[in-house]
Every structure is written in C-alpha cells, then in structure tokens.
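QA checklist item 7 of 12: single-chain prediction sanity check.
[x] sequence parsed
[x] length recorded as 162
[x] structure emitted
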Amino acid sequence: MSTEKNIYNFEVKDAAGKKIDLSEYQGKVVLIVNVASKCGFTPQYEGLEKVYQQFKDQGLVILGFPCNQFGAQEPGSDSDIQQFCSLTYNVSFPVLAKVDVNGENADPLYQHLKSSAKGLLGTEAIKWNFTKFLVGKDGKVIHRYAPTTKPEDLVLDIKKAL
C-alpha cells in the first residue's frame, strides 16, 4: 500500500479552534487558498465565492486559510476575519484559523502542499496571499496557481477535476 501523503493525512483548525480532519473531504475536489483581508488581491474572495457557488453541488470545496505573513495584511483575529468575509464578500465556504504558510512555523498542510507543487523556478516558498492549490478527489495536488490567477480562470481545471 502506498504511504504517499495526500491532504487527507492532515488536520487543520477552524476559526473557532475546533480540529477538522481533512479526510472528511475525501472524494471531493478541494481548492486551498491562503487569504488576507487587506491585500490588493482581497477582491478575489468574490470570485472564489462565485466559483464555489457554481461547483459546490458537484463536489468542490474551497478552504481559505488566513495568513498574516505578507505585508501584515491579515492583522485581525479569527473572529474579525470571519466577520469581514461574511459582511464584505458574503463568503459561504470555510475560512479557517489563521496559519503560517512559510517558515519554521508553517502549517504541516502547507509544508505538504508546497513540496507537492513547487512555484516559479522550483521554489517552495509561497510568494504572496491568494496562492491557490487545486487538489483532486484522491487528495493529491493537481496544480499550484499564482496569486495573480483569478478564481474564474480555474474553472476549466476544476471542471476537469470534478
């Protein structure tokens, strides 16, 4: 049996601090995004929500991970972030607890994602907010997208994965 890791081997925390076992998303296509409330790319929440509404009934899950490592653009608490996402962009997909995506305190899920799908020129480090990872139904990373890639531009890849 393969011991290759996929996202189902990881636990994360929701905004209230409750553990979520990612194995509960087995058989679904998952888009994982590091998000921030005060970033030039923050309006992508709108596109993410549209894509989520379009494909959630076909098995798409979007998981937002707030991160304050890029220009301190996510300074709020987990509850502040929830309120912002809800009131400003009417986000209905899960926005989880704040995490580090780079460095020695990087969340283990992000360590796995970065080593599974390298960025530009083979780098692992995430360069900015709204880096996106598309994960297939088998829990393996299909593709990594730059922050500048709009959520709407992922529709064809999402359809293929579904």
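[x] summary fact logged: Helices lie at 44-55, 78-89, 108-116, 155-161.
[ ] second reviewer sign-off
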